[in-house]
UniProtKB/TrEMBL annotation, chain A:
The keyword Cytoplasm does not apply. This is serine C-palmitoyltransferase. GO terms for biological process: ceramide biosynthetic process; sphingosine biosynthetic process. It is a single-pass membrane protein. The keyword Endoplasmic reticulum applies. The gene is Sptlc2_1. Belongs to the class-II pyridoxal-phosphate-dependent aminotransferase family. Residues 124-484 form the Aminotransferase class I/classII large domain.
TrEMBL record, chain B:
Pathway: Lipid metabolism; sphingolipid metabolism; Sphingolipid metabolism. Keywords: Acyltransferase, Lipid metabolism, Membrane, Pyridoxal phosphate, Sphingolipid metabolism, Transferase, Transmembrane, Transmembrane helix. Belongs to the class-II pyridoxal-phosphate-dependent aminotransferase family. GO terms for cellular component: endoplasmic reticulum; membrane. One of its GO terms (biological process) is sphingosine biosynthetic process. It comes from Pheucticus melanocephalus (Black-headed grosbeak). The chain crosses the membrane at residues 22-40, 161-179. This is Serine palmitoyltransferase 1. Residues 99-462 form the Aminotransferase class I/classII large domain. One of its GO terms (molecular function) is serine C-palmitoyltransferase activity. Its EC number is 2.3.1.50. Its cofactor is pyridoxal 5'-phosphate. Component of the serine palmitoyltransferase multisubunit enzyme (SPT) that catalyzes the initial and rate-limiting step in sphingolipid biosynthesis by condensing L-serine and activated acyl-CoA (most commonly palmitoyl-CoA) to form long-chain bases. The SPT complex is also composed of SPTLC2 or SPTLC3 and SPTSSA or SPTSSB. Within this complex, the heterodimer with SPTLC2 or SPTLC3 forms the catalytic core. The composition of the serine palmitoyltransferase (SPT) complex determines the substrate preference.
Length: 518, 473
């Protein structure tokens, strides 16, 4: 049974999140697997060093052989010996629109993945369970594409200037007003790249003398932005509200380390949906804590905007909360809107400040006009302002697909992480050999999946991650489920013992916080 | 039998007890008492602060007032009120309702409005839609990306190229991929902000040398050499890099690349070259500063450029030998953790490359126009021209500052407004004053493109003279 949290009336709907513990035998076998791979890795390195085996890496120039080596041998150990073996599961080139079905270019390797050659054949109609296409706006026909084509012929593809100089087009202003209306905030600002939105705006908001409380599993862009800002960073356990509250209390009571001065600001960094775990942030509790301790909340809705909530407005809508409670609402347009870029929404003072002091506004080129038009059309579609109910239908379809898919996978006996309502579905593989095997077997059956291992996940918790889309029909999901079932039996992936551990019993120990050094 | 055995052991124990010497017994007794004491004493917590009572803690929490999230920005801050451009930012641009000739967008080769580029992008839009919905590793690699990387590598005559989806992120992700904590980077003072952010993210030791001053750089390198001799073990694992730009964005100067190459081999330092402004501008075929000076491209370890200036697209690329570029595919943060470039922009860049390859005489035309306006702008009262004669992005700085930066900015704004009202669109160069390491003085940016006719160039020069006369005198 799942653990349902109601927590003093803060939650208006049940919050089902579960992380089944790794079975002991599987953990042991995984370590053994990595041990064997490491041994063979050392053996192969030894053979390469003594020229018994041909070394196929690219090497340094002859003229520069006496320079300090650019890479340490050990850094690349994982790359050479483990990653190379299963390299064909990643960077798969496609040649059609990344919708529900995709065409992939076939590539073969004759030397164990050191080099690839394209046979020229195209594998058609692979069911795409890897692209972040939550609402199905990655289309080559339809209203969005036509509007983008019109704007492209009128405005051209590039902009060639920054926002503060000559790059602020009327289209950008239109987009920002629309995004602000969509989110329910006073004002918004859009940027050309989602990663850069985080790494360039967090340093503008906080600096030395401020405190950042960041979740354990935050994305690389949030971590980079926090480091570049120069503030002190403290990490709380993933989605664990007691850990966060303890950090907040300690921070305010004890002040800055050693000087004991009070902190200037405290900023909490969380994400809406964590893409590797499939978990949803406990937003009502975070907001209650933020109000009690007078800190600021930065919510990164990269995956949750458009994908959660009855009207597709993200995790704030999903919990039925007030968007004004979140100080900085950040998100990206890459996932649910089928375009590229990021945005930040909030109060007018915040956005005015960012317009003046954000690194991106002063030094980076503004967004390309056809991309802006795609976002405008898709947002209008989700809001229902284009006169159709396509947007609403898609949001509902996604929610149905999510529930159905997760239920069926759990019934089959796989270990699935994360929240019941999140369209990101991680399926645990654990063993290193199964990572490559799963990817290849699924491709043979014409289904494209994403597998992730170390270093994106902890070393024994490698997983396959499915991203559901509103464009997936029930037939496609059934086909996919059937194949996953087959492969699961073939590779013995059905680890679940149906003993789901209720969430709050996860031990929270009295550890002191870890401060990350800079 | 078991009971008897046990009793036997017990008797032995009691016998040993009686037979032991006295000091032994006393010592053991003390040890036992000590252990009991330790067991019952309070555990020592490492970070035991002064014991604040719960009530005091609650009071502290009540009293603490944070600063507001952002300080208020004055309404007339120069960077707050953007110019609104209606319609495409091409040669004739409509700024704030007025039609002007564009001297502010970095559209050097005029490819922003080119019909062939637009139709290539349209074809790509019809085939792929707009976004790629994924990073390069997870079904975000399109055949257009692979084609663009191949074309760029072939154009620049290097082994491999890698594409980023954002110009700023290109050099800011490339530097931290190679240079880590403990490595040493020698960088020019006038390096652009993206380079500064890359260096900050890398956590390496940064040594600034005076702008384009090779003697200063050599001095720093010699100092480093003497340091190395003190600690040869450390020196053997410390990587060194020099980061320079081909054409500097902040000063319009060119870097003395041949001398840098000599220093490279003498002191064993690697060179990273940032060619955002010089790609598609310098050299007989637009290959950048290496072609301009006739240097073998393999001598430069990494060339990074953005495609937002000459190629009139969005994004950036790095090119060099496979040994170096391949590393970024797993450790370039802006490459691995971010969605790939939308295919229509990649297709636009490929078409722009085609045009560059088919018309190599546009570079000569651009250089001629730059020389012309550089000459025409000499001798304006109160303003001096900063930049090389063949640089398409110049700065006009005040000859004498009037005291504070704020006032200088206001004065230049009046010059810019005068020109805008008479049909020439100009802009001031914008910087983040508190974030830059070496803040350049306020200036007006003048950008020359191939599309500007000679009459327009002359008109701009005379208008600037007029504006300077009326505002600065």
């Amino acid at each position: 049974i799942n653990h349902i949290v109601h927590n003093g009336g803060l939650y208006k709907r049940p919050f089902n999140e579960a992380f089944e513990e790794t079975p002991m035998l599987v953990a042991v076998l995984t370590y053994v697997g990595y041990g064997v791979l490491t041994l063979f890795g050392y053996l192969r390195d030894f053979m390469r060093q003594w020229k018994i085996e041909k070394c196929q890496n690219a090497t340094e120039r002859e003229e520069q052989k006496d320079f300090v080596p650019l890479y340490q041998d050990f850094e690349n150990f994982y790359n050479r010996n483990l990653y190379m073996r299963i390299r064909d599961s990643w960077n798969r080139p496609i040649c059609s629109v990344p919708g529900a079905k995709v065409d992939m270019m076939e590539r073969v390797s004759h030397d164990y993945n050191w080099t690839f050659t394209y046979t020229g054949r195209v594998i058609k109609d692979i069911i795409n369970m890897g692209s972040y296409n939550y609402l199905g706006f990655a289309q080559k026909t339809g209203a969005c594409q036509e509007a983008a084509a019109k704007v492209l012929s009128q405005y051209g593809a590039g902009v060639c200037s920054t926002r503060q100089e000559m790059g602020n087009l009327d289209k950008h202003e239109e987009l920002e007003k629309l995004v602000a209306r969509f989110l329910g905030v006073e004002s918004a600002m859009a940027y050309g790249m989602g990663f850069a939105t985080n790494s360039m705006n967090i340093p503008a908001l906080v600096g030395k003398g401020c405190l950042i409380l960041s979740d354990e599993l935050n994305h690389a862009s949030l971590v980079l932005g926090a480091r570049l800002s120069g503030a002190t960073i403290r990490i709380f356990k993933h989605n664990n509200m007691q850990s966060l509250e303890k950090l907040l209390k300690d921070a305010i009571v004890h002040g800055q380390p050693r000087t004991r001065r009070p902190w200037k600001k405290i900023l909490i960094l969380v994400e809406g949906i964590y893409s590797m775990e499939g978990s949803i942030v406990r937003l009502p509790e975070v907001i209650a804590l933020k109000k009690k301790y007078k800190s600021y909340l930065y919510l990164d809705e990269a995956h949750s905007i458009g994908a959660l909530g009855p009207s597709g407005r993200g995790v704030v809508d999903y919990f039925g909360l007030n968007p004004e409670d979140v100080d900085v609402m950040m998100g990206t347009f890459t996932k649910s809107f089928g375009a590229a870029g990021g945005y930040i929404g909030g109060k007018k003072e915040l956005i005015d400040y960012l317009r003046t002091y954000s690194h991106s506004a002063a030094y980076a080129t503004s967004m390309s006009p056809p991309v802006v038009e795609q976002i405008i059309t898709s947002v209008k579609c989700i809001m229902g302002e284009d006169g159709t109910t396509i947007g609403e239908a898609r949001v509902q379809q996604l929610a149905e697909n999510t529930r159905y898919f997760r239920r069926r996978l759990k019934e089959m006996g796989f270990i699935i992480y994360g929240n019941e309502d999140s369209p990101v579905v991680p399926l645990m593989l654990y063993m290193p050999a199964k990572i490559g095997a799963f990817g290849r077997e699924m491709l043979k059956r014409n289904i494209g999946v994403v597998v992730v291992g170390f270093p994106a996940t902890p070393i024994i918790e490698s997983r396959a991650r499915f991203c559901l889309s509103a464009a997936h029909t029930k037939e496609m999901l059934d086909t996919a489920l059937k194949e996953i079932n087959e492969v699961g039996d073939l590779l013995q992936l059905k680890y679940s013992r149906r003993r789901l551990i209720p969430l709050l019993d996860r031990p929270f120990d009295e550890t002191t916080y870890e401060e990350t050094e800079d | 039998a078991a009971g008897v055995g046990q009793q036997w052991v017990l008797v032995e124990m009691v016998q040993a007890f009686y037979e032991a010497p006295a000091y032994h017994l006393i010592l053991e007794g003390i040890l036992i008492l000590w252990i009991i004491r330790l067991l019952f004493s309070k555990t020592y917590k490492l970070q035991e602060r002064s014991d604040l009572t719960l009530k005091e803690k609650e009071e502290l929490i009540e009293e603490w007032q944070p600063e507001p999230l952002v300080p208020p920005v004055p309404k007339d801050h120069p960077a707050l009120n953007y110019n609104i451009v209606s319609g495409p930012p091409t040669h004739i641009i409509t700024v704030n309702g007025k039609e002007c000739i564009n001297f502010a967008s970095f559209n050097f080769l005029g490819l922003l409005n080119n019909e062939k580029v637009k139709s290539a992008a349209q074809a790509s839009l019809k085939k792929y839609g707009v976004g790629t919905c994924g990073p390069r590793g997870f079904y975000g690699t399109f055949d257009v990306h692979l084609e663009l990387e191949e074309r760029l590598a072939k154009f620049m005559r290097t082994e491999e190229a890698i594409i980023y989806s954002y110009g700023f992120a290109t050099i800011a992700s490339a530097i931290p991929a190679y240079s880590k904590r403990g490595d040493i980077v020698f960088v020019d003072e006038a390096a652009c902000f993206a380079i500064q952010k890359g260096l900050q993210a890398s956590r390496s030791n940064i040594k600034l040398f005076k702008h384009n001053d090779m003697a200063d750089l050599e001095r720093l390198l010699k100092e480093q050499e003497t340091e190395d001799q003190k600690n040869p073990r450390k020196a053997r694992v410390t990587r060194r890099f020099i980061v320079v730009e081909g054409l500097y964005m902040n000063t319009g100067d060119i870097c003395p690349l041949p001398e840098l190459i000599k220093l490279k081999y003498k002191y064993k330092v690697r060179i990273f070259l940032e060619e955002s402004l010089s790609f598609g501008v310098l050299g007989a075929h637009g290959r950048g500063i290496t072609e301009h000076f006739g240097i073998n491209i393999d001598d430069i370890d990494l060339i990074s450029a953005n495609m937002e200036n000459s190629l009139a697209s969005i994004g950036g690329f790095c090119c060099g030998r496979s040994f170096i570029i391949d590393h970024q595919r797993l450790s370039g943060q802006g490459y691995c953790f971010s969605a790939s470039l939308p295919p229509l922009l990649a297709a636009a860049a490929i078409e722009a490359l085609n045009i560059m390859e088919d018309n190599p005489d546009i570079f000569q035309t651009l250089r001629a126009k730059c020389e012309r306006i550089h000459k025409a702008l000499q001798g304006i009262s109160g303003l001096k021209v900063v930049g090389e004669s063949f640089s398409p992005a110049l700065h006009l700085q005040l000859k004498e500052s009037c005291g504070s930066r704020e006032n200088d900015v206001k004065l230049l704004k009046r010059v810019v407004d005068y020109c805008m009202n008479s049909g020439i669109a100009l802009t001031q160069a914008r910087y983040l004053e508190k974030e830059e390491k070496c803040l350049p003085p306020p200036s007006i940016r003048v950008v020359i493109t191939v599309e500007q006719t000679e009459q327009e160039l002359d008109k701009a020069a005379s208008l600037l003279k007029e504006a300077a006369q009326s505002v600065l005198n």
